[in-house]
Amino acid sequence: MTQISQTLVNRNISVIDPISGQPHRTSIRLEKIEWEALRDICARENMSINDFCCKADRDERRCEHSRTSRIRSAILDHYRNQNNRLDS
User: Fold this and answer.
1) What is the 8-class DSSP label of residue 26?
2) 53-70 burial, b if ≥16 CB within 10 A, otherwise e?
3) pTM for the full predicted model
4) Domain assignment of residue 16, given as a range
5) CATH number at residue 25
6) Which residues contact 7 (CB under 8 A, 6 or more apart)?
7) What does each C-alpha distance from 49 to 10, 29, 58 come to in angstroms?
8) Is residue 39 part of a domain?
9) Tag placement on the chain: N or C end, fewer CB within 10 Å?
């Protein structure tokens, strides 16, 4: 049987619980390229991965169902908006 290579990487992050306001650890699974993009964004914006994820998770414009989806779309939005700034 051929084994399929797993490209998703599981990592723990800290986010703020919306009810208690306290930080808690949670796990998200992103593709390797998404983790690289997230690290790149955080380095450029001088913020931690946890801060970026909290910001994406609380962003009222994010209507995606899961936390991981909200983070993925925030990464994509960051690069889309960066391209728009460069084109204008």
Assistant:
1) E
2) bbbbbeeeebeeeebbeb
3) 0.77
4) 10-87
5) 1.10.1220
6) 31, 32
7) 14, 14, 14
8) yes
9) N
